[in-house]
């Protein structure tokens, strides 16, 4: 293995905001590309590279390491270039908006190995586990996770809030990846490079591994137990805003997998919340002695506005780009149509099937379902307009680029 001198500076991809230094000669053939996203990891990168070098030398793994840095103010890129290790180290500096996932996508686009392994720079992911992850992809797995939650793994997770958070976050992925994947949130994973179709990738936030698991259809998924260590130095960048991004990312993945169903499910969830608002306000107004008919008007109107706001922002996010007043008028009209349909269907059934009148609730349920379906279809095609845009205008450049360097 050769030490690569940080000489040439190249710009990768079409108009992409990344600059690379220290490229290896093009003729090199690598089995493995190790992609490491970094932001303010100058104190960790030297030790990381030394430990990677030790293990890949021992196991004779032909690999390149691609450090993808987001212009870290602490000089991470420089620190990576200066480390003296018997390893091909490529340093990629991004200048666009920073982000863990897009940095990893850029790294994957530049990778030249048969397999790509992604890991953090802070040594929470032990480099000594790399051979085991590689062995599993060599053995035919499409995607291998360095997992905290299989037998032999260690999460090193402390605090009720953090554990609960992680459990709920993982639970929300079950419909997407199945129950058998124990650690879909991991940032330590390895996959066949040809499976990572950059055109498909559009992640926001931290969970690039989940994005790949869902979109690349890797077939056989294997989890290798790892000991998730405490951070070597510095602080985590996982802020509350990153966690909110996770919810938006999940929504994108659900939309991607089940485009129509996921929207309809959200619409019903909003409707259910609206019902809670309606009943709560109704109870309050009655408690304060407001007359029933008036209380009904106030609580129905409030719930309707509540549903309107949520549907406009969450269920049909593209609609929020247009003016709200005509939309609100149409929404109220659509809901009124829904009420008429609900009333008509349940009454018609009551009149037509006298033998089932003892279970009249059934007629009401059919009325509610058809009324809701009408509400949904009118909202989708008339109120908020068809062809609803993405919740995040402007995909990450690197994901669009979809081209790899030779
Ligand atoms: N290029 C780039 N840009 N890298 C970033 C950015 C960014 O904006 N933000 C974070 N990173 C890098 C860090 O420098 C580190 O190498 C890695 O991404 C993980 O960041 P941490 O801040 O250490 O994340 P964490 O330890 O809280 O989360 C890790 O564990 C989670 C599981 O609990 C990550 O691996 C997550 O992906 C994982 O889900
Ligand atoms: Mn970390």
Structural write-up:
- The protein starts with 8 loop residues before the first strand and ends in a 5-residue tail after the last helix.
- A nine-stranded mixed beta sheet has the order 1-2-5-4-3-6-8-7-9, sandwiched between helices.
- It folds into two domains: 8-257, Spore Coat Polysaccharide Biosynthesis Protein SpsA, Chain A, CATH 3.90.550; 259-401, no CATH class.
- The protein is of the alpha/beta class and 406 residues long.
- 48% of the residues lie in helices and 11% in strands.
- Helix 8 crosses helix 9, helix 9 packs antiparallel against helix 10 (292-315) and helix 11 (324-352) packs antiparallel against helix 12 (360-383).
- It is built from 13 helices and nine strands.
- Residues 120, 122, 124, 231, 236 line the site of manganese (II) ion.
List the helices and strands and how they pair.
Elements: E1 9-11, E2 18-21, E3 32-38, H1 45-58, E4 63-69, H2 76-82, E5 88-94, H3 100-110, E6 115-118, H4 130-138, E7 143-147, H5 160-171, H6 174-177, E8 189-192, H7 208-215, E9 221-225, H8 240-257, H9 259-287, H10 292-315, H11 324-352, H12 360-383, H13 397-401
Parallel strand pairs: 3-4, 3-6, 4-5, 7-9
Antiparallel strand pairs: 1-2, 2-5, 6-8, 7-8
The protein binds guanosine-5'-diphosphate-alpha-D-mannose and manganese (II) ion.
């Amino acid at each position: 293995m050769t030490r690569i001198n940080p000489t040439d500076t190249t710009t990768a991809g079409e108009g992409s905001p990344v600059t690379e230094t220290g490229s290896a000669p093009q003729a090199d053939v690598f089995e493995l590309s190790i992609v490491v996203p970094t932001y303010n990891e100058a104190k960790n990168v030297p030790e990381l590279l030394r430990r990677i070098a030790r293990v890949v030398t021992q196991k004779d793994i032909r690999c390149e390491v691609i450090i993808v840095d987001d212009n870290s103010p602490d000089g991470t890129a420089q620190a990576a270039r200066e480390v003296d290790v018997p390893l091909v180290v490529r340093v990629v500096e991004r200048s666009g908006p920073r982000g863990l996932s897009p940095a990893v996508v850029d790294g994957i686009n530049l990778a030249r190995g048969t397999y790509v392994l992604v890991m953090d720079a802070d040594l929470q992911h032990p480099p000594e586990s790399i051979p085991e992850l590689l062995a599993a992809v060599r053995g035919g797995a499409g995607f291998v996770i360095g997992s905290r939650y299989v037998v032999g793994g260690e999460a090193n997770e402390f605090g009720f809030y953090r554990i609960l958070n992680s459990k709920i976050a993982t639970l929300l992925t079950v419909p997407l990846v199945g129950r058998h994947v124990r650690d879909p949130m991991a940032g330590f994973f390895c996959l066949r490079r040809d499976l990572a179709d950059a055109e498909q990738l559009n992640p926001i936030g931290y969970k690039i591994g989940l994005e790949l698991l869902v979109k690349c259809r890797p077939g056989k998924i294997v989890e290798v137990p790892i000991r998730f260590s405490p951070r070597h130095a510095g602080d985590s960048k996982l802020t509350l805003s990153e966690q909110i991004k996770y919810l938006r990312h999940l929504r994108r993945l659900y939309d991607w997998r089940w485009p129509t169903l996921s929207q309809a499910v959200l619409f019903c969830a909003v409707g259910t919340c609206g019902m809670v608002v309606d009943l709560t306000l109704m109870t309050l107004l009655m408690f304060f002695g407001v007359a029933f008919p008036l209380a009904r008007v106030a609580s129905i109107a409030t719930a309707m506005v509540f549903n309107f706001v949520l549907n406009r922002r969450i269920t049909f996010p593209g609609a929020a780009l247009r003016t709200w007043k005509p939309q609100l008028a149409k929404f109220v009209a659509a809901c009124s149509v829904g009420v008429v349909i609900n009333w008509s269907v349940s009454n018609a059934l009551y009149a037509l099937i006298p033998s089932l009148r003892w279970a009249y609730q059934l007629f009401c349920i059919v009325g509610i379902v058809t009324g809701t379906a009408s509400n949904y279809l009118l909202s989708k095609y008339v109120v908020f307009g068809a062809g609803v845009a993405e919740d995040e205008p402007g995909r990450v450049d690197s994901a669009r680029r979809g081209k790899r360097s030779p």
